[in-house]
Design goal:
heterodimer, A: about 260 residues, alpha+beta, Phosphatase 2c, domain 1, 5-stranded antiparallel sheet, B: about 280 residues, alpha/beta, Rossmann fold, 8-stranded mixed sheet, two-stranded antiparallel sheet, 7 helices, about 25% strand, globular
């Protein structure tokens, strides 16, 4: 079986592309490693400092791991990501000094508090018969995975209802000492993928719309697949159906 | 449903602080008689500005989600920023961030992660030093606030409604401030009416009361007057207040007696705030 994927993303309306603080991986054509593929999206919290780089490190660290998706392996991934972020931050601060732009007083509290982001990681692996794929996923925070088969939503992970979205999710911090609650709430999911299935990974703004549409009896995946992404998001934002936030959707096709 | 407008650089909101600089502010502060009320006012406004700036700070810059003004009232009344901001009524928050009068270094105790506390040096920006001189023309200050806020709303008609925070000991000398307060609160953007919150720093030794829903337990007539002048917390702010541990009802007002109003900054919604960010 083969896996094709494409990610669509846009910054919050009114923001520069450089201010986009979601992250996704892989960036280009997905490549399998030993018959397995990995995908991840992350949503950096707008009210934390440097959450975009932290989200980027999280998705890369998840996708570069080849361990089965378990609570233990995810804890390891978060710990490795936090170390990688620490090194990145040291270099970032050195660069600021070198360039004559030292950290200002108003940045210090945010830097001390750490960066915060969601993580939705998906692993797809061939089963021994070669007739299906097994998906395993982890979710920390409110990014979502949806699975569509034959025009019907057959799995939504890890948020079950659109009313569960709020603006105060528990997220993963770049500071390991702040992660007790987040890690205790990590959700694991698994299922089977057949040829023709579609999987969608989304950060919360689009995911909330997707679930609401589904709850109203509509087929939001058709709108996603059948529209220009920018046009669709512009329209949904203008109509107040999608909150103005960074948006990221990875569309995966199993063939 | 009002009070849901997005606060962004394209659609900024406004904070206007009114600070009582009258002679009565020389009197001792009720809860700590070694300090004057004027010291409490300076501390409150500096901390409010500091927290508002930090709220709008991203790496490498402060985003202009707010325009900020500070009106002093006392012997002299009018725009109270000093230095390069002197004379200006409303200033983008990034300019407030860039122009404190000085940045002091203070120490605070923080958790060391191993169950203990360690001292940490933190930078504390100071925009205002204590001033205490003259009468308390609060009615006049509220009227000037109305003019400034009206001007802002005419330029930003769809903004999240401006928030006016009055920091005072409550003893107006130019009349009953209830009328001017109502006039100010009658202004509205398309998203709702202007919010007026009051921080009452009193010589009365009564314990702090934060965000009450009735004036029953307030210790004096000044406190009751300021409570009556304060706006009810909009529903979304009540949600944040509840998360911060305050009990609220429909009648909960933006009023604090002898306490800390800085929590109001945490009631502002400018984007995703992790529940575990402290």
């Amino acid at each position: 079986m083969k896996v094709e994927a494409k990610t669509y993303w846009l910054p919050k309306k009114g923001n520069q592309i450089s201010e986009y603080e979601d992250a996704f991986y892989p960036k280009g054509v997905p490549r399998s490693r030993k018959g397995a593929w990995r995908f991840a999206v992350s949503d950096g919290a707008s009210e934390s400092m440097l959450s975009g780089p932290w989200a980027e490190i999280l998705v890369k660290t998840f996708c570069r791991s080849s361990a089965p998706v378990t609570a233990v392996s995810v804890r390891g991934i978060v710990a490795r990501a936090a170390k990688a972020y620490e090194s990145w931050l040291e270099e970032y601060l050195r660069r600021r000094e070198r360039e004559g732009r030292p950290v200002q007083w108003y940045e210090e509290p945010g830097l001390q508090a750490g960066a915060y982001a969601t993580l939705l990681g998906l692993s797809l692996a061939s089963d021994p018969t070669g007739e299906s794929l097994r998906w395993e996923a982890v979710s920390l925070g409110d990014s979502c995975l949806f699975q569509v088969r034959d025009g019907a939503l057959i799995a939504n992970f890890a948020i079950g209802n659109s009313r569960e979205f709020g603006s105060r999710p528990v997220l993963i911090s770049s500071r390991p000492d702040k992660n007790g609650t987040a890690l205790s709430r990590l959700e694991l999911g698994a299922g089977e993928c057949l040829s023709g299935d579609r999987l969608y990974l989304m950060t919360d703004a689009m995911a909330a719309w997707f679930l609401r549409e589904h709850e109203s009896g509509n087929t939001p995946w058709a709108a996603l697949e059948g529209s220009d992404f920018q046009d669709l998001v512009d329209r949904l934002r203008d109509e107040g159906l999608v909150r103005n936030d960074d948006v990221t959707v990875t569309c995966i096709r199993v063939v | 449903m009002p009070y849901i407008a997005e606060i962004s650089r394209a659609n900024p909101s406004c904070f206007l602080f009114l600070i009582d600089q009258s002679g009565s502010m020389r009197d001792p502060f009720g809860l700590d008689p070694s300090r004057r009320k004027a010291d409490g006012v300076a501390d409150a406004i500096n901390r409010l500005l500091q927290n508002l700036v930090i709220k709008c700070a991203k790496a490498e810059g402060v985003r202009d989600y707010y325009y900020v003004g500070v009106l002093g009232y006392g012997h002299r009344s009018g725009p109270a920023f000093g230095g390069s901001l002197a004379g200006r009524e409303l200033v983008p928050i990034s300019e407030v961030a860039a122009n404190p009068a000085r940045v002091e270094e203070r120490t605070r105790k923080v958790e060391d992660g191993a169950g203990g506390l360690v001292e940490q040096k933190v930078k504390f920006p100071v925009w205002f030093d204590p001033v205490a001189n003259g009468g308390t023309p609060m009615c006049n200050a509220l009227s000037r606030a109305k003019d400034i806020v009206r001007g802002f709303i005419s330029q930003h008609p769809d903004c999240f409604p401006p928030i006016v925070i009055n920091i005072t000991d409550g003893e107006a000398t130019d009349g009953n401030p209830q009328g001017p307060a109502q006039d100010l609160q009658s202004l509205a953007s398309t998203d709702g009416n202007v919010l007026l919150f009051n921080l009452h720093l009193s010589s009365n030794k009564a314990a702090p009361i934060e965000f009450p829903d009735s004036d029953e337990n307030l210790p004096d007539s000044y406190a009751k007057l300021l409570f009556g002048m304060s706006s009810r917390l909009p529903e979304y702010m009540r949600g944040f207040a509840e998360e911060e541990g305050y009990k609220t009802t429909e009648n909960t007002r933006g009023f604090v007696f002898n306490g800390d109003l800085v929590s109001v900054i945490r009631f502002l919604d400018i984007g995703t705030r992790p529940a575990n960010l402290r």
